[in-house]
Specification:
Helix content is 85%, strand content 0%. It is an all-alpha fold. The longest helix is centred in the first third of the chain and has 32 residues, at 2-33. The chain starts with a helix and ends with a helix. The relative contact order is 0.11.
């Protein structure tokens, strides 16, 4: 049972990581299209700013 649980846990982590990466890629694309390049720089340095941008673009 523990092995099965560990496999599930590992799969969930992988799926969450892929989902997060997908959201960030969408966000970066939207920011580039809108010419908000300075926001990309700020987002790379600040988790709070990334979170705010994700909410702004309804990606969170």
């Amino acid at each position: 049972m523990t092995t099965y649980y560990n496999r599930l846990k590992k799969q969930w982590k992988k799926e969450k990581k892929e989902e997060s990466e997908s959201k960030m890629a969408k966000l970066m694309g939207l920011l580039v299209r809108e010419g908000r390049i300075s926001d990309i720089e700020k987002a790379s340095e600040s988790p709070d700013y990334r979170k705010a941008l994700l909410q702004e673009f309804q990606l969170s």
